[in-house]
Design goal:
This is SPOR domain-containing protein. It comes from Candidatus Accumulibacter phosphatis. InterPro entries: SPOR-like_sf. The two termini are 45 Å apart. The C terminus is likely disordered. By secondary structure, the protein is of the alpha+beta class. The chain has four helices and eight strands. It is elongated.
Length: 170
């Protein structure tokens, strides 16, 4: 008896998470996927380490709005602030302080709230991305061969099963 197309089950998929890869190593793995393992799909995420926290007012529409917001801060008695230049990473945000620890940032935010500042937030300050993570999804039957190829390319690389709680951003 010959199986019909409708009787065939889709291949079982497997997922591996390769963490703490240097950017060049992640590039090599992505090249390997495209050249020899096209049935696999990789999602890459690069994240810098948290280097501190900052208290800020989110970017404003234009310079005039930023100047208006600064005038409001001055009226509320806030003296320490800095308008992020339009060439910065968050143009026209208003920085209200940077801190090494999250607790110090929270204390500053609470002090600002006590003065009536409502639009301030706490954000993480991150270094430039130093490592990448690759989540690779594909046919379980070929996952062993892929793992061997990656380890041959990067002997110190280690994979773990993907966790349902791991969210990988494109």
């Amino acid at each position: 008896m010959v199986d019909s197309e409708s009787d065939k089950k889709p291949p079982v998929e497997s997922c591996q998470l390769w963490s703490k890869l240097a950017a060049s190593d992640a590039d090599q793995v992505e090249h390997l996927l495209s050249e020899r393992f096209s049935a696999f799909k990789g999602k890459r995420r690069s994240v810098g380490e948290i280097t501190g926290y900052w208290v800020f007012i989110p970017p404003l529409v234009n310079r005039e709005e930023a100047v208006r917001k600064v005038a409001e801060l001055q009226e509320l008695g806030v003296k320490d602030y800095f308008i992020v230049p339009s060439s910065g990473s968050r143009p026209l945000a208003i920085s209200l302080g940077t801190y090494r620890g999250e607790e110090a940032a929270r204390v500053r935010l609470e002090a600002l709230r006590a003065k009536g500042v409502r639009s301030a937030k706490i954000g993480e300050r991150r270094s430039e991305p130093t490592f990448s993570t690759l989540e690779i999804l594909g046919p379980e039957a070929d996952m062993g061969a892929l793992r061997e190829a990656i380890v041959a390319l990067l002997p110190k690389a280690v994979a773990a099963p993907c966790s349902a709680s791991v969210e990988v951003m494109p």
